[in-house]
Design brief:
single chain, alpha+beta, Ribosomal Protein S5, domain 2, four-stranded mixed sheet, 10 strands
Length: about 200
């Protein structure tokens, strides 16, 4: 089997980001300048069994928004490139992940049709210096640029750190299932693309 991997660099006036992604395993090396976000991306990669290296220089003197959203853009682009025409994958994935008192669910369709449903009311506004509302921004940027349909639901919880971590880990396990190698193309059209 060919190694499914991609490297993407994106530079704007707000961020300079490089992502190296291997869908079939590898180490993690995440440096975004945002400690909690590094923790979440590491959890995503480890639980999806992805190799992931992220380097992000961003305008953190403004706030975390641009760095978090743009990391989602670049990671999504790398994911799409690593999969190519999306043939030979299971396509769908689902996971329900507990994190202590919190429970999150994720469902994904690697279809070429970008869409995000994100339903989460966090118990706190921040985890460390990370604004938890940015989880929505990250996953939206990732889903749109990866060309996937992603549904994320925080069922309940009481600790913002646990709630966010459950969402990232649920997404990871759903992605892991969806990109699992499988013969053929799981589509009545015989192909997966953005053309419905």
């Amino acid at each position: 089997m060919l190694m499914r991997k991609a490297s993407v660099t994106r530079t704007t006036k707000e961020t300079d980001i490089t992502v190296d992604l291997l869908l079939d395993g590898g180490g993690t090396d995440i440096q975004t300048g945002i400690g909690f976000f590094d923790h979440m991306l590491t959890a995503l990669a480890v639980h999806a069994d992805f190799g992931l290296r992220v380097r992000c220089g961003g305008d953190l003197h403004v706030d975390n928004h641009h760095s978090v959203e743009d990391c989602g853009i670049v990671l999504g682009q790398a994911f799409a490139r690593a999969l190519g025409d999306k043939s030979g994958i299971a396509r769908y994935g689902f996971a329900a992940i507990p994190m202590d008192e919190s429970l999150a669910q994720a469902a994904v369709d690697v279809s070429g049709r970008p869409f995000l449903v994100f339903q989460a009311c966090f118990s706190q506004s921040n985890a460390g210096n990370f604004e938890l509302c940015l989880c929505d921004e990250f996953f939206r940027a990732f889903a749109v640029n990866a060309g996937i349909t992603l549904h994320l639901l925080l069922c309940y919880g009481a600790n913002g750190h646990h709630e966010a971590e459950a969402l990232f880990k649920a997404c990871a396990h759903a992605l892991k299932a969806a990109v699992r190698p499988q013969d053929g193309v799981l589509s009545t059209k015989g192909m997966l693309d953005a053309g419905r």
